[in-house]
Amino acid sequence: MNKPNIQLREPSMVMKLSRLGSFHQSKLSFLRSFIREFKSWNYKRDLFDLNKDGYGTAVYSFEKKGRNYSLVCFAQHINPEERSDRVIATKWDAAFVLHDGKPTKQDIDRLRKNVPKQEVGRVTYKELTLSRANKSIRAFDHVVNSLSKGKQPDHEILKRVGYLYRTTAVYGSGKFGLADRFRIKDRKEIYGPFRLEMMLVYLVRQFTFDQVNHIAKFKNPNKAVYLNKDIARNLGIGNSTGLGMAPFIVNHPTLLHNWIYCREKALKEIRSIKEVNKDDFNIFKNCLEKSKANIDTWVTDSKYQINKIDTLKTDLTKFFKYLENLNSQKNDYLWNLIYIWSEENLEEECVEYIVSMMMEPYEKIIDPLIINMSSEEENYFNIPADRKVFDLKKIIEKNYKSIIEIDFRDKKSTSNFWFISKNKEEPRVANRYEEHGAELEQPLAIARDIKKLYGKLIKYNQKDTVAEFLSNNDDLRHVVRRAFIVENFPYSEIQDNTIGASLVPIDMLRLKLSFFGAVKFDPKSDKWLRINMYQGAPHPHEMKLSKDNWVYNSFN
Amino acid sequence: MQSFSEIDTTCKRASKAAGFSWGIAEEIGKNIRNLEMFGLPGVKNLNLYLKKIRKIPNEKIKRIRKINKPKKKELCPIYCGTAFLDNCKKLENFKFIKFFNVSYPLLLLPFLGRASNIVGKKILIKYEKNNFLLNFDKTILSDNLNCNRIVYKAKKISIEFLENNNSFSQKEWKELYKLSEETFVEESDRLKKKGAGAGLTDND
C-alpha cells in the first residue's frame, strides 16, 4: 500500500466549537502526565490536626532533591444553607493552598486567616495555587456513617457520585497575591502544563479520604473501619465549573494552540504508522473496552449531555462491529484506516473519543509532546506593525475563512455579550438585546471584531503599514494582535462565533477540562457543569508503581 | 502585596474604563507590570494620569516626527508610546527624537523599552533631570531613582537610539583576549591532523 498523504487536521475543522466540545481525556491530559512525572517524588502527610468532627488543619507534601511543595488544608463547619458551588459562595467546607516549601507555624497561622476567605483573603508569592471545595453531602455522610458502623460504603451510591468533595475553583498565576508564573516557570518539574493545579487537586483528594476515616473513627472508635483502598481509588475529586474557564481559552491563544497542536501532531504521527504492532492494537482495544464501562457510569440529568452520551454509545457499538470485521494484521496504516472510517461514519463525539484511545499505546509519541503544552504568551504580544495592510488582510483570509462569512448584521449573530460581574469579578454571558451592560462588553467577540477589521482592511491602502492603519483604528488593535498570532499558531483561535445565538458555552469549558483530564461531564445548564478528576488514580504511596491506564480502571 | 498579574489585569481594565481601546489597554497593562517589575512607580503614575484625562483628555499623536509638539494641550504618553512602538523601525533612522509637553512621561518608558528590544539598540531618554537607559526591555537604568517623585509633565523629552558600539577600546580587548588565550592548547602537527574532524584542506 502506498503511503497515504497524512496531514495535520485543518484548524477550520478542529477549532469548531462542536468539535472542541467533543474532546475527551487522553494520555496527553494534564492530570495523567502529572502522575507520570511526579512518580518519583516523595509523598508525606506532615500534619493532621483535625477535631472529632473533621475540622482543623492538615498539611501534605511532595518532596524531591530539596524541593518541597505543601498543600495546606483548612476544614471548617458550615451550615447547609451556606453550602453553594456557585462562585457567589463565601464559605466552603474546606479551603486549600499549595505553599512553596515547608510552611512554618507563622505561615500556617497567616494562611488560616486568609485561605478560608478565598477571593477576599490575601496570599503571598510563597503560595502557588488556591482552591476550595464542598462536601458531596450524599456521598460524604454515607461514607462516614458506613465506616463508623464497621461497613464499607454502598458501591452504587459512590458509583453515582464518584467523589467525596467538589472543588469550585482552582486559582493560580498571581490571583489574590499568589506567585506570578515568572517566579517559578524555570523549575523543570513544572515545565508541563498546570502542574501545580494538578498537584493541589491530587492532594485534596487524599485529604478527603483521610478526613472520612478520621471522623468515622471518632464517631465509633470501637467499630469503625478504614475506607477500603480499592473503593477509595475509585473516587476522584469533583469539580463545579462555570464560565470562568471560557474566556481563559480566548485570552491564552498560544497556549490553546500548543494544546491542540500537540494533540493533532500525536494523531498525525499515529495515523502515519505503517505496521501497527499487535500488542499496541490490543492496548487500544482493551482501553476502549474498559472505557465503555465508564461511559455506563456517566450519569447526568442534562438533555444535551444525555444526547451526546447516547450518540457516543450508539456509535461505539457501530465501531466495535467495524473492528470485528477489520483484519488488523493485514492492513497497513491501520490507524489511518480507522480514523478515516470513523470520520465518515461516526459523530464528532465518538471520533474524538477514538482519537483519544488511539494515543494509549504510544508513550514514545506522547511523552515528548507534554513539555510543549505550556506557553509564554508574552513572547508573542508585540504587533509587527511594520508589516503591510496587505499581509494582514491575507492572514485573515487564510485563517478566518468561515468567520469572515458570518453576517453580523443579523441580530442572531450578536445575541450575546461577555462581561465581568461587579460582585464577583467573574466572567458572565448575557443576551445583548435583553440585558443591560453590553456597552461594557469584554473583548471576547473575536469573530465579530475580526470581521470588522477585515471590512476596514479591504478598503485601506494595501501598501500602508499596519502602524499607519492602527493610528486610525486603535479600536481594532486587540484583534490585529490576534491575527498576527494566528499566522504562526494556527490552532490559537476558535473558528466559531462566541457571541452568536447558538453558542453553547460549555463546549468551551469541556475543551479545557478534557485537556485537564476530567471525566463524566455533567452539564447543569449551558453555562456550568460538574466533572470528576483523578477517579481511578493511584493513591500517593502507590504512584511509584502505578500504570498510566488507571483512568480506565474506575468502577469496572 | 499585589502580584504582577493583578497589576496587569487591573491596569488594563482601568485604562479601558478611562477611555482607551481594549488593544491599547492591553499594552498599558503589560507596560505598568514591566515598570513595577523594574521598581518604578507605574501604578502611581497611571492612577494619576487616568484621573487627569477623565477630566481633561490629552492630545493624541498619530504620527511621530523628529520634533513633536502638541497643538493645544499636553501630549498623551500612551499614544506617543504606542505610535513610537509601532513605528520604531522607521524612527530608528531619526536617531534623535524630541517631544514637548508630555504628561506623566514615565508612562512612555516601557513602550520605549520594548522598542529598544525590537530594533536591537539601547535607547537613552532624558527629561526633567532624569536620565534612563533602556536595555532591550531587559533592564532600565537610571541616574535618578526617586520613586516617590512624580513628574506630572515633561516640558521636553529627548530620545536617542544608541548605536551598538563597544564600551571598551581595542587595546583593552586585545589585552583581555591575550589573557584568555592562556586557556588554549598549543597544537602539535599530530594533533592538527587528528584533533579535528575536517582535513587540513577540503578542496574535494
Write the topology of this structure.
The complex is a heterodimer of chains A (556) and B (204).
Chain A lengths: L10 H4 L2 H4 L9 H8 L4 E9 L5 E9 L2 E9 L18 E7 L4 H10 L12 E9 L1 H12 L6 H7 L1 E9 L9 H4 L10 H25 L9 H5 L2 E6 L3 H7 L1 H19 L6 H19 L6 H22 L9 H12 L2 H11 L4 H8 L18 H11 L16 E5 L6 E5 L14 H12 L8 H7 L4 H12 L16 H12 L2 E5 L5 E5 L23
Parallel strand pairs in A: 6-7
Antiparallel strand pairs in A: 1-2, 2-3, 3-4, 4-5, 5-6, 7-11, 8-9, 10-11
Helix pairs in contact in A: 5-8, 11-16, 14-15, 17-20
Chain B lengths: L3 H14 L4 H16 L4 H14 L11 E2 L8 H10 L1 H4 L4 E8 L5 H11 L2 E6 L2 E6 L3 E4 L10 E10 L7 H11 L8 H6 L10
Parallel strand pairs in B: 1-2
Antiparallel strand pairs in B: 2-6, 3-4, 3-6, 4-5
Q: Kindly state the number of beta strands of chain A.
A: 11
Radius of gyration of chain B: 23 Å
Helix content of chain B: 40-55%
Count up the helices of chain B.
8
Biggest sheet strand order of chain B reads 1-2-6-3-4-5
Structural category of chain B? alpha+beta
* Beta-strand share of residues of chain B: 15-25%
Count of separate DSSP helical elements of chain A = 21
What is the global morphology of chain B? Answer: elongated
Strand content of chain A: 5-15%
Quick one: how many beta strands of chain B? Answer: 6
Chain pair with largest interface:
A-B, 34 and 26 residues
- The low-confidence parts of chain B are none
